Amino acid sequence: MSKIRTKKAASTTKSTAIKPSAKFSQRVLKWFDSHGRKDLPWQEDINAYRVWISEIMLQQTQVKTVIPYYQNFMQRFPDIQTLSNAEQDDVLHYWSGLGYYSRARNLHKTAQQVCEQFNGELPASVEQLVTLPGIGRSTAGAIAAIAFSQHCSILDGNVKRVLARHFVVEGWPGQSKIADTLWDYAEAHTPKKRVADYTQAMMDLGATLCTRSKPDCPNCPLNHSCMALAADEVKLYPGKKPKKTIPVRSTEMHIVVNSKGQVLLQKRPPTGIWASLWSLPEGKSTVDNFTKGKATSWPVIRHTFSHFHLDITPIQYKSNTASAVMEPDQWLWYDLNKPAEVGIAAPVTRILAKLKA
Ligand code: SF4
To answer: Is the pTM of this model over 0.85?
Structure first.
């Protein structure tokens, strides 16, 4: 134990103190050769565009959720030019349900920027990649390593967990000091050869073996050297985010259904929550032109953002005013049976599904 404590102390020092062992990457690559995932859709016909889209989708989202979205997205936007020329609504529609919509808006912006500034080719260097909207250091490293075989490191959530446990790096990785230490470990252990395989292997290891709640240490290729396992302290790593209570806000969403059974949607402003997505109108005065008769309140639905809970009370009306004057880019009569291809805010999707049912 005392030896492990000494290493814990070392783990918060600068990268110059890290003495990487080649065995680390050798074990990871050997495991990858026999157990790594090699048939994921983005592992076929590898190019920078396909790697980029998969990396953005995989942020905060599990592989099995991403696969059908990725396949549909690639079918609709097979290359960066097609994505760059698409309407933002179309891009958001193909993202509907994946959440964190700023990722989709940034994808679209980046595609346009790459077509304008880089002749339609994603750049190969991390320095240039990180200048593009929505591409952080880890995503840039993954694109450079997997698509361009550059000697670059990644540090996504899975890799942070593996490294924090293996090298007993204390503290919450969301803190920049802790993230810097983990980057030092990531860079020190990335091999010069087979960097694309190693990158994929580390992501796989974190996703399939070194999982958050049930790490499969007996089958892990790093179990002989893992310091958290040796100390029987795997559950302590990575450190948890300090708890904070978040405020609760509330709103009403008005469900106006016309005589054709269509539901009134309003486009959200281009900034703020659910930016540019379609949603149910919120202010009563905004739906006064459309509503007649008695309203029915539904039970409250809670939607949680990172910084607040939103309690939504849906209020349903019947309306006969399908001909009311409407600006078409702001208002939409949404047909539940023939849905328009537009991006819709997540809780509104739930409300519409309930309405249809
Ligand atoms: S031995 Fe266990 S805790 Fe350590 S890296 Fe492997 S799976 Fe993670």
So the answer is: no
